Amino acid sequence: MTESPIRVGVLGARGRMGATVVQAVEGAEDLRLVAALDAGEDLAGLGDAQVVVDFTHPDAVMGSLRHLIGHGVHAVVGTTGFTEQRLAELRGLLAAKPELGVLIAPNFALGAVLAMRFATQAARFYPSAEVVELHHNRKADAPSGTAAHTARMIGAARAEAGLAPGPDATTSEVDGARGAEIDGVRVHSVRLPGLVAHEEIMFGGEGETLTIRHDSIDRSSFMPGVLLGVRTVVSRPGLTVGLENVLDL
Ligand SMILES: NC(=O)C1=CN([C@@H]2O[C@H](COP(=O)(O)OP(=O)(O)OC[C@H]3O[C@@H](n4cnc5c(N)ncnc54)[C@H](OP(=O)(O)O)[C@@H]3O)[C@@H](O)[C@H]2O)C=CC1
Ligand SMILES: O=C(O)C1=N[C@H](C(=O)O)C[C@H](O)C1
């Protein structure tokens, strides 16, 4: 007997990512699109969705997640803006719903996940690391969720290896010229029309540099990861942060 398709709802359905997700879900035989909502639409319109995919806005996502968890709906979230405080709140809400899964991934592109993994492996071998992320100029947040996640992963690997802050002789700077500091790692944001989503992770050491670069040149790059998330989250209770955990990297 064939299994019934997973019923999927999409939040942010008229946005750049949401519209691409709608198409991807419609094209998948084992999934059925049951709702596609955007800003201002009542979440009751999600109907009997089993899994909801959220690509909206950092200011909107927590409200939606509170509703989804309260109504027993699994969630796959690409929206950025997750702080430790937000994650702690979600863990608290999920504790009362042991069967429910929420997957939050700052980046659903396979290459971006691999780039972060490779960067984490490289981190302990170099005294200095910096991240440059480059995106389209319609992006709401800076730095990107991916760059923040990358910096945190590198920062953790550096701390575990007992590395001191990278050597840096800067004593005078224009505000912002050295980027934002996340867990001891400098992160720089570029916004230009024509770009989609790109990241360079740069390491410097004695007489050499190592650069790991990933480019999403089309939003279709995120879809295999999103669909994998939808198929996985229904049998993965609790909060999962990062697609690397689903891919078991
Ligand atoms: N994890 C990943 O792999 C990726 C993550 N992202 C992230 O996804 C998010 C969306 O990006 P993108 O698609 O480019 O943004 P867009 O602005 O193109 O799309 C967001 C859509 O969500 C709508 N929206 C806002 N609030 C709500 C709400 N409460 N309920 C339903 N819909 C809402 C917006 O409507 P309106 O415009 O009217 O406000 C808009 O149509 C960002 O945080 C981005 O960083 C993006 C790409 C990949
Ligand atoms: O807004 C985007 O476009 C993207 N957002 C995510 C992020 O902030 O990391 C993922 C990807 O970089 C595209």
Q: What is the fold named in CATH at topology level of the largest domain?
A: Rossmann fold
How many beta strands in the DSSP annotation? Answer: 11
* Helix share, percent: 25-40%
Let me know the CATH homologous superfamily of the largest domain: NAD(P)-binding Rossmann-like Domain
User: What is the element string, with H for helices and E for strands?
Assistant: EHEEHEHEHEHEEEEHEH
**Beta-strand percentage range:** 25-35%
CATH architecture field of the largest domain: 3-Layer(aba) Sandwich
| Structural class by SSE content | alpha/beta
Morphology call: elongated
Q: Runs with pLDDT <50, length 5+?
A: none
Q: Major sheet: size, sense and barrel closure?
A: 6 strands, parallel
Q: Write down the CATH class of the largest domain.
A: Alpha Beta
Question: What is bound: which ligands?
Answer: NADPH dihydro-nicotinamide-adenine-dinucleotide phosphate, the ligand O=C(O)C1=N[C@H](C(=O)O)C[C@H](O)C1
Number of helices: 7
Q: Main sheet: which strands, in order across?
A: 2-1-3-4-5-11
N-C termini distance: 33 Å
Compute the number of structural domains: 2
Please tell me the overall pLDDT: 97
Quaternary organisation: single chain
Describe the structure concisely for a colleague.
By secondary structure, this protein is α/β, with parallel strands linked by helices. Helix content is 31%, strand content 26%. Strands 2-1-3-4-5-11 form a 6-stranded parallel sheet, with helices on both faces.
